[in-house]
Amino acid sequence: MRLLLALACLIAPTICAKPGNDAIRLSNVQTLTLHANRLTSARRVSPIPQLNCIGPNKKVCNLYQPDVMRCTNQGHDYDLEDVQWTCTADLPPEFKLGATDVICEGYRHADDKWVLKGSCGVEYRMLLTELGEERFGYTRWDTPDWDKMSKTQKFWTGLGNLIFFGFLLAVFLMIAVPFVLFLAGCLGLRRSRGDGAGRGWGGGGGGPGGGGPPPPPYSAFDSYKSTDDQRWRPGFWSGAAGGAAAGYGLGRYSNGERRTAPRRSGGYDAGEGSSRTPSFSSTTASTGFGSTRRR
Predict the structure, then answer these.
(1) Of 1, 183, 237, 240, which residue is the least packed, with the fewest Cβ within 10 Å?
(2) 166: domain range?
(3) 78 within some domain
(4) How confident is residue 65, by pLDDT bands cut at 50, 70 and 90?
(5) Within a domain: residue 204?
(6) What pLDDT, on a 0 to 100 scale, did the predictor assign at position 145?
(7) Which residues contact 7 (CB under 8 A, 6 or more apart)?
(8) Which of 88-102, 111-125, 178-192 has the lowest mean pLDDT?
(9) CA 272, CA 258: separation in Å to the nearest integer?
(10) What is the pLDDT of residue 204?
């Protein structure tokens, strides 16, 4: 293999020659220091942030951002330029680093062994520790974003949500419509009673057969009984609840197992759109591991 590489260098020296003064090999880089709110240098493509949190959820990323991260070369994998890294940053005890991948710009193309000096950034994952889960909860922290879902996941999620909310609407209508009809029946009964009282059931003038026969006795229980006959049987409720549960479960099918959030003692809401920023009293060193990618 080395003989073939040497022959290639003799035939085409540009293959092995350094392409420019601002090109380096990652195997010669021992440490990288990256800063928040700074961009990398760029030549072929657009610059990227030096520190970029990619998950598992943007809500977790928005809770805290490290100011500085230092990555150390830990040797290579199968190829000399396939460098493995350990990256360390100071984080509050509620957080810890997950995967930390170093992303660099290939000097001439995406697979170039030479990379542009200053073009490396880190894509890292911010995870919650047990203390962080107790403070912020973990509702939907591990839920994949909609934009990152596949078409199949989006289909099943949308279908499950449609079935779930469809059952809720059906239950609401089946409760509301008979109730409205019952109220309308009561109002109509009151009106008919008022009309009967106004006309009266007079005995007629002294001749025989004067006046009509009195109305039949009326019991409010009969009206209530007829309305009560229209109520649902237990089978409806069990079927509606089962269908709603099935639809809701179908929507969660593609997202894997999720944990339910514990009750939080405080009133802090870590969701997006919250105007409150959490405060942290101390930080400790946290280390993540990752490999190299070129762009």
Answers:
(1) 1
(2) 145-189+222-257
(3) yes
(4) very high
(5) no
(6) 56
(7) none
(8) 178-192
(9) 19
(10) 46
CB burial string 48-63: b at 16+ within 10 A, e below: bbbbebebbbebbbeb
Report the chain's terminal Cα–Cα distance, integer Å.
26
Which residues partner with 85 through β-bridges? 73, 290
CA distance 168 to 162: 10
Against a cut of 0.70, is the pTM above it? no
Coil, helix or strand for 291? coil
Give the residue with greater pLDDT, 276 vs 182.
182
3-state helix, strand, coil in the chain (%, to 5): 40, 20, 40
Res 105: pLDDT: 97
Q: How far apart, in whole angstroms, are the C-alpha atoms of residue 283 and residue 88?
A: 12
Q: Which amino acid is at 195?
A: D
Question: Is the same domain home to 100 and 173?
Answer: no
* CA separation for the pair 11, 133 (Å, rounded): 60
> Is residue 196 assigned to a domain?
no
Average pLDDT over residues 11-17: 57
Amino acid at 100: T
Average pLDDT in the 103-112 region?
Answer: 95
Do 139 and 151 lie in a common domain?
Answer: no
Copy the structure tokens of residue 9.
């260098």
Nearest Cα neighbor of 97 from 75, 65, 74 is 65
- In whole angstroms, what is the distance from residue 152 CA to residue 158 CA? 10
- Whether residue 283 sits in one domain with residue 139: yes
Q: Which of 89, 27, 40, 85 has the alpha carbon at shortest distance from 64?
A: 89
For residue 56, say if its preceding peptide bond is cis, omega within 30 degrees of 0.
yes
